[in-house]
Amino acid sequence: MGVRFPPCPFLKMRMMPNRWSSEQNKIVEDLFKQGKSFEEISIAVNNHIKKLDYDIFFERTPRSVVFKCMNLGLISSKELEDWDKIRKVKLSKYRFKDRDKVKKNVLERDNNSCVFCGSKEKLEFAHIIPFRMTKKNMELEGITLCYEHHRRYDEGDNELTKFIFGKMNLYYPEYSEFYKLEIVSCESHKEHAKIIQSPSSR
User: Fold this and answer.
1) Are residues 19 and 65 in the same domain?
2) Domain limit, last residue, from 37, 67, 95
3) How big is the CA angle at 110 (ends 124 and 172), to the nearest 5 degrees?
C-alpha cells in the first residue's frame, strides 16, 4: 500500500477502493492479450492508479494480477498454481543467494552490534530496501539492527531511517549516487522518510 500526504491539512484523505475498477480490468485484459508478462501488467496498472491522485492507494502486485487474470477467465486455476510454484522457487533462490556471506560482512562492518543503539543482543540482518523489491542480498542494502530497531525501521520510523541513511553515507562515499532519502511532509502530518533507489541505479 502506498501513501501520498495531501498538500493541505483541511483536505480529507482520498482512499482508493480496494476492489478492481473496470479501467484496471481492461488494462489487464488488453495487456494479457498482447502477451505482456504479469510483472509488466502490474507496472501498467499501478501507473494508472498513481495518475488518479489518491492519497492512499493499493498497489497491484504481479501475484494479484495473476489472480485477477484467473477471475477474468484468462487463465485456469491450474495455471495460477503452476505460476505460484515457480514464483516461490525463484524467491527462495534469490533470498538465499550470497545471504550468509553478505550477512557476515555486514555484521563485521557494523562491529557486530546494532548500528542505532549499540546492542549486541538479538541482532538481525536488515534489508534497507525491502527484499521483495530488489531480490538481492547486498552489503550496500544491508544493515545490522537489533530486533526492536529492525521492527521500527520496517514500520517507517523517521529518525531511524535518517540515521541509517547517514550511516551508509559514512561507510560508502558514493552511496548517495545510488540511493536517496525521500522525505514527504505537510502541516497536518509528521515527516515521513524512506530510503529508495535512485532512478538511474534501478
Assistant:
1) yes
2) 95
3) 120
Q: Which of 49, 63, 68, 48 is nearest to 3 (CA)?
A: 49
Cα–Cα separations (whole angstroms), residue 2 to 41, 55, 95, 120, 135: 18, 8, 24, 34, 20
CA angle 133, 175, 158 (to 5 degrees): 65
* 46 and 68 belong to one structural domain: yes
pLDDT at 34: 97
Can you give the pTM of this predicted structure?
Answer: 0.55
So what's the pLDDT on residue 53?
A: 76
Alpha-carbon distance of 92 to 109, in angstroms, equals 26
Query: Do 153 and 164 form a contact (C-beta atoms < 8 A)?
Result: yes
Q: What's the rounded Cα separation, in Å, for the pair 164 and 72?
A: 44
For residue 196, what is the enclosing H or E element?
strand 189-197
- From residue 40, how far is each of 69, 84, 154, 179 by CA, in Å? 13, 17, 27, 24
Residue 57 exposure: Cα atoms within 13 Å on the Cβ side = 19
Same domain membership, residue 67 and residue 118: no
pLDDT on residue 192: 67
Same structural domain, 66 and 21: yes
Predicted local distance difference test score (pLDDT) of residue 127: 92
d(CA 7, CA 91): 38
Mean pLDDT by 10 residues, the chain (202 residues): 44 72 96 94 91 78 93 95 86 74 94 96 92 82 95 88 94 89 59 72 53
